[in-house]
Amino acid sequence: MSGGEAGPAGRVGPAVGSQRLFVGGEWVEPDGGHHEVIDPATEDVVGLAPEASRAQVWQAAAAAREAFGTWSRTSPQERAAILDRTADLLQRDFASHVELARAETGATTATARGMQVAVAVARFRRYARGALEPVETGIPPQINEAGPLGRAAALGAVAVRRPVGVVTCITSYNNPWANPAGKVAPALAMGNTVLVKPAPQDPLSVYRLAAALEEAGAPPGVVNVVSGTSVDVGEAAVDSPDVDMVSFTGSTAIGQRIGEVCGRGMKRQLMELGGKGAAIVFADADLDAAAAGIGTTFSFYSGQICTAPTRVLVQREVYEPLVERLVRYAGHLKVGDPRDRDTVVGPLISAAHRERVESYVELGRKEGARVVVGGERPGPGLDKGFYVAPALLADCAPVMRVVREEIFGPVVVVVPFDGEGESAEDTAVALANDSDYGLLDYVWSADVARAFRVAGRLRAGSVGVNTIGRNMEAPFGGFKQSGVGRDCGSYALHAYSETQAVVWAG
């Protein structure tokens, strides 16, 4: 089943012992030994993750290359069946997977269930159907007169989407189930083979995904997983000559370095990078709804999510009322052990990341922001674990670093703006677009026509109008330094394919 410890009927518990790499259909010992995976809530050891060598990463890429020819020629029905069986197997061991997700990431039970493992199952189901979607698009025929290129003819044409080849999938630590599933499933559906490099903080869940794919019948080499804390592991997964495409979710800084390597080799890229989501709140907005939406930054993944509405731009007339609502919202959120049913805010992923978030709260204070609530470590009872109380920074200015830089934690900054009518719209749009990022912005207003008008002017890949909800069939990706390309729904199938034109004489 996997390189971990197995229980009855092949099911595995949250502790996986010394995990092995998955290369070419074999579970192999890592050249670099293992590193500890730490539970962010308790600081206990969850398991031992393998440290691949550069040579082993290249071996995994070579295995994916060798498997590509056969896998790319399998029927869509066969690929769909394997993805569907993978979803069945993930569902079979759902409870155990939730335990591991919670232990590795510090996510609350509700988040681990509903937003991590359940989403992974749903994505394999979705792309089992996706494997059966048409890949051909007809093109109107063209009448050519006789000339240097041949006799007169009616030329037919069709555009066909073909697999790219070997895809390296580098996944983020905030969701080790949904994020890799959202890369691996559509890539396999299109006939690609994959090399997966998970984040070092929580890689064990990704090996569970690989084990399910193996059991579901994915041929050797179609899926390979390597991990490690060394930069060399990630670099090898990108610069291997056998890799045709890199799909990366993570920081903009690392994405830029990956892009440089891909550029030299003309490799395809799909990049979902950082965000500093602007939430524009006009004076006529439903403030309770706006506060509830913005407040999810405090609770959802403890703010460790790039789509969060972390940068609130609020019209002056309702500035104080919205701040008051956000304070009340934060005050009702229990920070604590994610295993407890009533916990809303769990820990951050690591001690180092907690220190980073705390340093930003202190920086905001020095820059002149008013720390209205939070930012401190919780009191007695939470002596272990990487906890920080949700923080609200008010009276912020657009030039402050806490307003401009991605914090990636439970921290919301609030900036007031002035103006009436069109001038208010102009000011809000200018403030929102004054950012290096452009992933997901939000607009709250009772005037839906105005909200859509403003949305059309925002330089962001997605805009939520009076909602933080997402339609998972809609394209997802960023403008500017928030990324390159789009995925989700059928857009992901396009992202993991090349378009080939086939032309014939009628």
From TrEMBL:
Q: Superkingdom of this entry's organism?
A: Bacteria
Q: Which UniProt keywords apply?
A: Oxidoreductase
SUPFAM superfamilies associated with the record: ALDH-like
Q: Which InterPro entries match?
A: Ald_DH/histidinol_DH (IPR016161), Ald_DH_C (IPR016163), Ald_DH_N (IPR016162), Aldehyde_DH_dom (IPR015590)
Q: Which residues form the Aldehyde dehydrogenase domain?
A: 27-502
One GO MF term on file is:
oxidoreductase activity, acting on the aldehyde or oxo group of donors, NAD or NADP as acceptor
The UniProt record lists the keyword Kinase: no
Q: Which Pfam families does the UniProt entry name for this protein?
A: Aldedh (PF00171)
Q: Which residues form the signal peptide?
A: none
Assigned protein family: Belongs to the aldehyde dehydrogenase family.
By what name is this protein known?
Aldehyde dehydrogenase
- List the source organism: Streptomyces alboflavus
